[in-house]
Write a structure and sequence with these properties.
By secondary structure, this protein is mainly alpha-helical. The protein has helices spanning 11-31, 37-51, 53-80, 87-104, 110-130, 137-152, 156-166, 176-184, 188-197, 202-216, 227-236, 240-264, 278-301, 304-329, 333-350, 358-361, 366-370, 372-402, 411-425, and strands at 217-218, 221-222. Strands 1-2 form a two-stranded antiparallel sheet. Helix 3 packs antiparallel against helix 5, helix 6 (137-152) packs antiparallel against helix 10 (202-216) and helix 12 (240-264) packs parallel to helix 14.
Length: 428
């Protein structure tokens, strides 16, 4: 894989814009004497997530409100579960479902839409962090003097081709950009081999390595190297602190990912509606378990810089989630419904449509769901009372018919009916 600046559709231009931001951050760091790529990645991640904050809040808000909506949505599904073949019933079901979403001020595709918008940004982020020299001028310039010397050095092409192959950089070409791509991935052993192979370039090699190490090393780890590779080489030299530092990257990636998932599901554990859909609930629990483990595996084999980004991103999302949770917990659902009703009716007014009573259309509320059993008992009792009353009327009518000797409908029959009634109720 070539690590030069991305030209992919959509992702390429976004990566270029993000590269400008990272380049500006690194420039500021240089001005204050802290030109470190690891620190730059953390600051860069904070800035990007702050820029994406509106999208993130909408996505997290949707997830939290969905818990409150679930009882109503499930009640609607239950209401129409035996009418799947009835097209009119299905249209009515869709209408009621949309009304519930409108009532809470969210869109059925809200979560997916936020993800679709964020995905190109996240892919572009990976691209920038994966190959910092392509986007950060100062880092590129740190490698360029050595790359320029290697372009003219005898035997450099063969050496760099072999190095590219060992570092999993395919399709290598002897150009300035491709040379810097490979040099950026150099490990300590590669620098030593380069120095031995080109002693005439020792001054520029040592100068470049010193500058790059100052930029690339974060908490003692080379951010261009993977934790697995660092642990392997550190074990051979018995550098236990280095091993601990390398292990911390995937471990922290997994822990922060788990923390983020835990915060996102806060409040769902004790919510009956959140646990009513067994399939969905089981899937979410599995994802919350698998994703942290996958984070650890990925960060073990990817460069440390990617792990730093992964950890920083999870921490920032967790902080955002805490504030979103608090904000959602303070929401008065009735006020929210009222505000959304007003917004919906303003839209309908512009379209020339009559006002819509969302609260009536989506009439199933959480409180109604919670009292559904008692309400059902009341409805059943009403039906029973109607049936009893009908039976009593029928019995009375039959009684008067069977005990009357007069012609039905005549004055005599009516007088006889009154007499019989008085006798039955003991009224003289």
């Amino acid at each position: 894989m070539l690590l030069t600046k991305s030209t992919a559709f959509i992702i390429g231009p976004i990566a270029t814009v993000l590269g400008y931001i990272m380049n500006a951050i690194f420039w500021v760091q240089e001005q204050i004497g802290l030109p470190n790529i690891g620190l730059c990645i953390i600051l860069f991640t904070i800035v990007i997530y702050m820029l994406m904050l509106p999208l993130t809040i909408q996505q997290q808000k949707f997830s939290k409100l969905q818990v409150k909506m679930n009882p109503e949505l499930q009640a609607i599904n239950k209401k129409y579960e035996k009418k799947k073949d009835d097209q009119a019933a299905m249209m009515k079901m869709n209408e009621e479902t949309k009304a519930v979403y409108a009532k809470y001020g969210v869109h059925p595709m809200g979560s997916c839409l936020q993800l679709l918008i964020q995905m190109p940004i996240l892919f572009a982020l990976y691209r920038v962090i994966w190959n910092v020299p392509a986007y950060v001028t100062s880092v590129y310039n740190a490698f360029s003097p050595l790359a320029a010397e290697l372009l003219d050095a005898s035997g450099a092409e063969e050496f760099m081709t072999d190095a590219a192959s060992s570092l999993s950089v395919s399709n290598f070409e002897m150009t300035m950009n491709k040379l810097i791509d490979v040099l950026y991935k150099f490990k300590t052993a590669n620098w030593s081999e380069l120095l031995e192979s080109f002693p005439d370039l020792s001054t520029v090699i040592e100068s470049t390595q010193t500058t790059v190490n100052r930029m690339n090393y974060f908490i003692g780890l080379n951010i261009a190297d993977s934790p697995m590779s660092i642990m392997t080489s550190a074990y051979q030299s018995r550098s236990w602190l280095l091993i601990i530092g390398a292990v911390l990257i995937p471990v922290l990636a997994a822990l922060t990912q788990w923390m983020n998932a835990k915060l996102a599901s806060t409040g769902n554990e004790n919510n009956p509606s959140a646990n009513s859909n067994d399939t969905m609930n089981a899937t979410m629990k599995s994802m919350n378990t698998v994703m942290p483990l996958m984070s650890a595996v990925f960060c073990l084999s990817l460069p440390v810089g990617m792990g730093i980004y992964w950890i920083a991103g999870a921490v920032i999302r967790s902080i955002q989630q805490v504030f979103v949770n608090r904000s959602i917990d303070k929401i008065d659902v009735e006020d929210l419904i009222k505000q959304n009703l007003e917004k919906e009716n303003k839209k309908r007014e512009k379209q020339g449509l009559p006002p819509q009573k969302i609260a009536n259309t989506a009439k199933i509320s959480t409180r109604n769901i919670e009292s559904a059993q008692s309400k059902q008992l009341t409805d059943d009792q009403k039906e029973l009372n109607k049936e009893e009353r009908a039976n009593k009327i029928k019995a009375s009518t039959d009684y008067y018919k069977n005990n009357s000797t007069a012609k039905p409908g005549s004055l005599a029959s009516k007088a006889q009916m009154v007499q019989q009634y008085n006798e039955r109720t003991k009224k003289k």
